Amino acid sequence: MSIVKTKGLVHEFIRRDEEDNVESITTALDHVDLRVEQGEFIAILGHNGSGKSTLAKHINALLEATEGTIWVDGMDVSEEENVMPVRKVAGMVFQNPDNQIIASVVEEDVAFGPENVGVPTDEIWERVEKSLKAVDMTKYRNHSPNKLSGGQKQRVAIAGVMAMEPKCIVFDEPTAMLDPSGRKEVLAAAHELNRQKGVTVILITHYMEEVVDADYVYVMEDGKIIMDGKPREIFSKVDELKAHRLDVPQVTLLADELRKSGLPIPKGILTREELADAILKCASDFRR
Amino acid sequence: MIRDITIGQFYPADSVIHKLDPRVKLFATMIYIIALFVFKGILGLGIITLFLAGIIRMSKVPFKFMTKGLKAIVLLLIITSVFNLLATPGDIVFWKWGSLQITDKGIINSVLMTIRLVYLILGTSLMTLTTTPNQLTDGLETALKPLNKINVPVHSIAMMMSIALRFIPILIEETDKIMKAQMARGADFESGNLIQKAKSMVPLLVPLFVSAFRRAEDLAMAMEARCYNGGEGRTKMKPLKYGKCDYISYGVVVGFLVLVIVAAVLLPFPQG
């Protein structure tokens, strides 16, 4: 069974003037179909305003669909009684680290989720312990979140979601407000959770470099999914990506340019190591 | 300047005071404030000073940290002491000019008022320095629970308070940032008379409010995403339970108040 599945999902933001007449309609999601299996690491890529954050909020039952259906862990999100169970299954990490930390002490913030769903006290402590350890923040457990760096705050937020033991975590541009080192920390934590705990990760981002390690990538524009496939497939279509004004990782771009100028380098190079190997191979072939 | 207010800032340390039940600390603070206003004479003052000094010692919070809060009320202190000094009629008049006079009672009053205010700030900020806002609101929530019966949304109020406390430092930082950004574009917050100064605050307050609302919206969504559903069916990571220390503290605090009252009755010098 898929953990997240959408069928013909449409979301319209309707603006009304003072007399309640419809002023304008913005279609944030336009018949989106997608399927995420348990344990996968999915990336959703797109520009600002492409609808990717709207999609994320649907997975957490924070918005109501205009049309279409979304199922999380087999539950129809639009049903009132499913809202809480869905939020328990699918956690969410938001963009701004400051605006999602509720308590003034790290461990109390991590406990906020389990407290809400009525977990007994002893188990809350266990879960807090485990979650802080999973994101390597145990030594900051008694600190105030205000004194942490952006990356650390975001890791606390991840721990807060982990403590609810979700099957799936949606990361809504978790690195957009962080410096490069904070970005690395957060991504490493996300991959770690996916690998070690088997949590399904849905990473929403506009940084190309971050999707390279994903299992599957969806590219969104104007509320539609315009491309999908494995990262290697996506990045082998350099020209198509450029046509959608999406940046390609530098290494992929370089490999593409080299191939265009005649070197026999395969398509879909994602890392420096791969490119180095490919060039070495060319060189040895050439010598022979 | 705004950064110096310590109220609402938790200072993490491992002390007896930190570990006390917040309900005890709330009760103690209340008693302490009562004591500050009923004490009379030098003996009572001595007892309060000893009590305060002892608790500050036990709390392991550096004294410097606490006095930061005082800087913010220096102006208030000066005004109250000057008014008390000049406007209190008394038996012995040292100096007189029109309706202004310095009398023996005026001197005593102004000294006492200053001490009271200083002690008030020290004592109350000690409570917020040693209690996490969460504990504090937990304490209030449990203490006020009976009000739930008459439809007072105790949990919501407590939650609002704890969130407000959490966002005070963030909003202060933001104010600083906006101020600097406006100053870089030529805004002037310093010069001019009071009205001009108030007017110059507009470009500071508008963006601050806008951002506060945006934050509130984000936070509400983050809380909902983590299954927040009001107070019903919530459990606690740190449920409030009285220990031995808490009962002893109740005793100490009540004893303290009794002592202060006895001192006020027996030896009210020099106020009697």
Question: How would you sum up this structure, described in words?
Answer:
The complex is a heterodimer of chains A (288) and B (272). With 288 residues, chain A is an alpha/beta fold. Chain A folds into two domains: 2-248, Rossmann fold (3-Layer(aba) Sandwich), CATH 3.40.50; 249-288, no CATH class. Chain A has helices at 52-59, 83-89, 106-116, 121-134, 150-162, 180-197, 231-236, 238-243, 250-260, 272-287; strands at 2-16, 22-37, 41-46, 67-72, 75-76, 90-93, 168-172, 200-205, 216-221, 224-229. A six-stranded mixed beta sheet of chain A has the order 6-7-8-3-9-10, with helices on both faces. Chain B has 272 residues and is mainly α. Chain B has one domain (2-266). Chain B has eleven helices and two strands. Chain B has helices at 16-19, 22-38, 41-59, 63-71, 74-87, 104-130, 133-143, 154-184, 194-200, 202-225, 244-266, and strands at residues 93-97, 100-103. In chain B, strands 1-2 form a two-stranded antiparallel sheet. In chain B, a hairpin with a 2-residue loop joins strand 1 (93-97) and strand 2 (100-103).
Q: How would the blueprint of this fold be written?
A:
The complex is a heterodimer of chains A (288) and B (272).
Chain A lengths: L1 E15 L5 E16 L3 E6 L5 H8 L7 E6 L2 E2 L6 H7 E4 L12 H11 L4 H14 L15 H13 L5 E5 L7 H18 L2 E6 L10 E6 L2 E6 L1 H6 L1 H6 L6 H11 L11 H16 L1
Parallel strand pairs in A: 3-8, 3-9, 6-7, 7-8
Antiparallel strand pairs in A: 1-2, 1-4, 4-5, 9-10
Chain B lengths: L15 H4 L2 H17 L2 H19 L3 H9 L2 H14 L5 E5 L2 E4 H27 L2 H11 L10 H31 L9 H7 L1 H24 L18 H23 L6
Antiparallel strand pairs in B: 1-2
